Amino acid sequence: MDLREEEFIYPGTRACAGCGMALIYRMALKALGPKTIGTVPASCLTVLHGMQGFCSTKISVLHTPFATTGAAASGILGSLEAKGLDDEICVLAFAGDGGTTDIGIQALSGAVERGTNFVYACYDNEAYMNTGVQRSGSTPLGAYSTTTPGGKTTHKKDMPKIMEAHGIPYVATANAAYPLDLYEKFQKARKIKGPKYIHILAPCPPGWGFDPKDTIKIGRLANETGFWPLYEVVDGIFYLSKKSKKLLNRENRKPIQDYLGSQKRFRDLGENIIKAYNEYIDNLWKNIEKRIEE
Amino acid sequence: MTNSKKDYQKILGSIQTPVEGEAGETGTWSSLKPIIDLDKCIPVKSGKYVCFNCWLYCPEGVISRTIPPEVDNRYCKGCGICMEECPVQAITMKEVKIK
Ligand SMILES: Cc1ncc(C[n+]2csc(CCOP(=O)(O)OP(=O)(O)O)c2C)c(N)n1
Ligand code: SF4
Ligand code: SF4
Ligand code: SF4
Ligand SMILES: [Mg+2]
What we know:
Chain A is built from 11 helices and 9 strands.
């Protein structure tokens, strides 16, 4: 595949070394190209963009209050429509997991229900990282955060499925560790009319507790253990992505301990948590199997 | 029909000025920088535009897709992802004196 050469983020941003979100955003903007207007709520991505008056991206980005990303995207689209520019310019909403699965969920649901022609991307670092690691609805079972000091007691919310239930033309999962897959999904989304939702796992070295050099390795383990399958749902039809195909066979899945054990946020996991994870992953894949057969 | 960046900014009434080094020269965050062994590097050896994993995976976009690949040390944060993702271990992270 030929990736666009041009970069849309100027170097020297405030993102941490080894940030999964930074790589995801870099790839997404490459895939969507210069005729894109973004909107971003309070998050690490705001910090990447920089201080008031300056911006580290070549594209224009509207910074919007935490709960309002979907509404802001609808507003941008409305103004583009009024100017007859809505076919030419892609509206991209980019929010964290807190901004998507918790506080922004109603604005997103509303925008999608109105049929807003936009791409909504959630980069999922599985907690409120910008404010120092508080749990979100997307924090996984057992993970430490400052608000779950004993480890989170519930699984993460299945946000892609919630979006799918809105009956939109395109839903996909992606992962910072598979930039080509991610790039293709954004390219595809740009060509589809209507609401598109892409949920991307974003390993975060300080928040998850691992060495910045291992961002890609850890992202890969999330796939290889079967914890974060890559797929697309196009007009209601489920497609398992190439990088996750072999995981249909249970024997090809790595033990979940390989993934959990590589991160400090999972440091004190008991046997019960491991058992719960194995059940969770088995269930996830049973459902995938069923959907493929349909 | 409008298509320049300035016009798009006007549509949003935006006042942000795009800048390089918004957070300063982030290369100063770490003195560890990737050193590429050109005897091992695939595009250098083959003369072909192949591999460039280092370019692909760098979150900062500070490695060039050129033969040989070059690192912009002014902004490289020294994460070491390029070293990990080089398929032939051509990259090592070394202490480099930074201004
Ligand atoms: C209404 C409101 N509540 C709280 C905050 C403080 N705040 C800013 S960013 C943030 C965390 C965002 O978490 P997430 O959306 O997951 O993005 P991340 O920081 O992890 O990238 C919080 C709580 C805010 N800006 N506005
Ligand atoms: S805290 Fe995590 S997501 Fe936020 S900038 Fe740092 S590495 Fe990226
Ligand atoms: S060390 Fe990190 S920031 Fe520096 S060139 Fe390698 S991948 Fe990019
Ligand atoms: S990843 Fe390694 S072999 Fe490939 S281009 Fe970079 S330095 Fe050369
Ligand atoms: Mg988050």
